[in-house]
Design goal:
Blueprint: H1 12-24, H2 29-36, H3 40-52, E1 56-58, E2 83-85, E3 91-97, E4 101-107, E5 113-120, H4 126-143, E6 148-155, E7 158-160, E8 165-168, H5 180-188, E9 192-196, H6 197-208, E10 217-222, E11 226-232, E12 235-236, H7 268-271, H8 273-284, H9 291-299, H10 303-327, E13 331-335, H11 346-356, E14 365-368, H12 373-389
Parallel strand pairs: 3-6, 6-9, 10-13, 13-14
Antiparallel strand pairs: 1-2, 3-4, 4-5, 7-8, 10-11, 11-12
Helix pairs in contact: 1-2, 1-3, 2-3, 4-5, 6-12, 8-10, 9-10, 10-11
This protein binds zinc ion (ZN).
Zinc ion binds near residues 249, 263, 266 and 268.
Length: about 400
Amino acid sequence: MLELPELPVPTPAGISVFREILQHGPIARAQIARNAGLSQPAVTKATNALMAEHFVTEAPEEASTSPITSSDRGSIGRPMQPLVVNSRKFGMMGVKVISDRLYAVVVDLLGNVLSKESVAVEGKSPQKVIDSTAEIFDELYSATSLPLVGIGIGISGDIDGKRGVVRRSPILGWNDPVNLRELLEERCGLPVSVRNDVGALTVAEEIFGVGTKSRSFAIVTIGAGIGCGLYINGNLVHGAYDVAGEIGHLPLAPGNLLCTCGKRGCVETVASFSSILKSIRKNSGMPTLSFDDAVTMAKAGDPQARAAFALAGETIGKAVASVVNLVGPEQIIISGEGVENYDLFAHQVRESFAGHVFGAAQDTKISLRSHTFYDWARGAAVSVILDILRV
Ligand SMILES: [Zn+2]
């Protein structure tokens, strides 16, 4: 296993200080101390080390947003500027794998996307995915001006993030474990972080999105699969087996249909895009119908197409209510490809959620966010930043 760069102060206090600057910079030293619950000398020790190694710099004066306090004045009276992360310190590549394509981005240390690329993957075998990732890595590596220190890869399925192993990915048809980290590290020569794709998207929201303001949220993704990333009380929830949040496999769907996971009655059997399409094809007698055509039919009022989307919406609403009843996030963000046609089942999701959520949790804020596949890839790249914060 290859090693990611270490922070100059890899102590809990040093990591907290860097994280405050990463998420809230430009930020004054006194504010860091308050947010992180640290003494001023502890903050000074960490920031001096971070500045010496160019992880952190003082913000230019015009970037300053926080008020300067007396404790931010240096010994000669010059106000000390708030601190920002040096985004140019290094970069990371992130990859999102879908059934027939890879989406990749290079981000800087502040998660800003510097370049992006997408390639078709001919075949879903692990070898094809590794070859295509290596190909896109070579292309982006030679085009970036930052030193790249790691690769994050997000894949739908049962992932062992600690070991970097994809145990199983039904969408890709991978039924046997694949040691993706080891294979990609050998091929690309950089440390590789492997995560469930929804988990990676959640990391990006944790570090640079909703998580900068909220200590508790869930992302529910609707599309090829139904997924959920959980961030509760300031922590990502992985569960003991790294599969927490698999709401697509809650047994809430009518019909006892067989799921891609091998079990029956899962949410995905009626709510994934392929299940919706399968149902409309069967009920309309049009076996070659495309998903776009099915959407067009539903929007035009075709009763069978509308019914399939309605059932998907009802079942998703139950799944979202289950998440809220179980772990109680402050807010739910609905994302994924399904957001594009959310109007086809928004009403059913809302009604079904209201019909199953318990008590005061009916006030849970639910919002839509359209994430592109490049945003998912960015999540995989930001996962590498999170791994650096945990060294
Ligand atoms: Zn299932």
